[in-house]
What does this fold into?
Amino acid sequence: MNTTFLRATVAGVALLTVAGAANAADMYRKAPPATPIAAPVTAYNWTGLYAGVNLGGDFARDKLGAASTGSINPGTVFGGLQGGYNFQTGPWVLGAEADVGYGRAKGTNGAVSFEKNWSGTVRARAGYAFDNVLVYGTGGLAWANFKLADGVDSRTTTRAGWTVGGGLEYAVNRNISVKGEYLYADYGKANVGVTSHDLSDHLVRVGVNYRF
It folds into this structure.
């Protein structure tokens, strides 16, 4: 084999090898930067103060005893105001809420009459948030104003009791949320004349809150 040709071939291969290595290094240096990973969308946070209005139905119950029997079960439209504070940790939401409202539930059973007017509650709330949907339970103190009478006596009295219930709240945006809620309240027994009144009610309502 021609020595000159062999030398030329070896030199060419070496040159190509060096050029390829240099080109690869240049491509490595000029590689485009990695595309940044987008930050995840922040979940809705329920922490903060809120206030709002509500409207629904109040279904009262007066179970009669002593000299009277049966019950009085009037219903009425009920509306009011509420306000409270939530604190969220992870998906759990803890808070407190107070509300006051009016609905005139009125009925009679023979000579016995019943009327419920103003009422309100102060409650703790505990719930689980699915982003902007909150499912919660609630319970605490309740009070209500009653006018009770029979053929012997009559009385206007404000009764304290307890309440328990639950609901679902949906955040439309950062500031506005809507909710549906059920509460049961028990106000104990009141004696008027010769009649015993065992007082309770069921409240079903919807509401709108503004979050500050």
